[in-house]
Structure prediction request, 463 residues.
Amino acid sequence: MKNYFKTFAFLLLVVPMFLFADEPAKAPDPAAETANAIATLTVGLDTLWVLVAGMLVFFMNAGFALVESGFAQSKNTVNILAKNFVVFAAATFSYWAIGWGLMFGDGSTPYMATEGLFFLGGADNSPALGDAYKGVYSSMNWTGVPLLAKFFFQLVFAATAATIVSGAVAERVKFHSFLIFSFILVAFFYPFTGHWVWGGGWLAELGFHDFAGSTVVHSVGGWAALAGAIVLGARKGKYLPDGRIKPILGHNMTSAALGTLILWLGWFGFNPGSTMGVGDGSTMSHVIVTTNISAALGALASTVTAWVILKKPDLGMILNGTLAGLVGITAPCAIVSPSSAAIIGAVSGVLVVLSVLFFDKIKIDDPVGATSVHLVCGIWGTLAVAIFGYADSPAGVDVPSITTQLIGILAIGGFTFVISFVLWYILKLAGGIRVSEEEELSGLDLGEHGAEAYPDFSIRARG
Prediction:
């Protein structure tokens, strides 16, 4: 009997060990492990590049602040620096909460997104929720970087559009009015037209091409800036009763030159970063070279043009010519050759000088030339896509017709200008958008902020 009990106990202990024992470990598959490691490394490198490029674009805020404050009078320096700081903060909140979803959400009509709105907290929780949010932004699924990397890169673009406006309305706009306009621009106007092109909307379906934003970013900012400059009116003393133009000189061209160099550097994130990945490096390299060549030729062409027309190689024109070349190449940078980029930059450099003089002649006061740089050269760059684009380019897209590009320019420009003009006018009626004459003459630094950029110097207010 004892033997039976021993046998039974043995079976109770040993048999379950066989029944529930783990299956023998499978031998690792070297090919699968290598493929997974390569895929992980690829995503990691792509993500790193997108984030670094986004940081370069973010640093362009420093460039804009230095250029704008340098081109303006010293008595308005604090106001300009404050605008350039706070506008990025306002843009971050408005794009995070509203703009991103309107621009890239699914369930869309050809004109606006209807899903994925109000991106509040969705990317800060569990990976599962993050994946769920990724699912409603299919227009961005062409790049494999994480959702938040895509969002950050697009955010700095949206903020750039708002920053452009600051320069054109400088030295007379109320601080709070500018912030309200910037918030609404980034939350609604910019993503609405951006969806048409980059969110899979009707212009994308039409074949409209804008690689990094000559129209989507720069012309949108330029149209909004033009509307603001018109509604605000010119600075006091800019245009004399007899029709003569009185130059209001910038107070620090060192600042303006340094800011332009920072912007030039930032554009090496702006344009190449729009690849949203490293790939084999060929597209990035192509875009960096075309971007740099266009900027260089813009600087040279504006130097010569200013020398011929103004009889002097005006530094302000040289700086704006550089920026003009950068804006002009932003749309076609991945679809044109380096030699074509040289032509695009040269034309941009000539255009910006003529445009600055034209806007002055029709008495639209733009202290930094933002409308000439970003609007006029943004239009030119978008047309250059059709003029100089070639098949089998790194962009990997069909070259659109000039008619298609014109439709996009007119549609986005018409919408942005009209809606911006209306908003500026509503703000004007609601509480005013322009500081008092006394405040404008004494400087916005003291009137709006109660501070001075150069308190150790006695600065005479100029009318």
User: Anything to note?
Assistant: The first helix runs from residue 2 to 19.
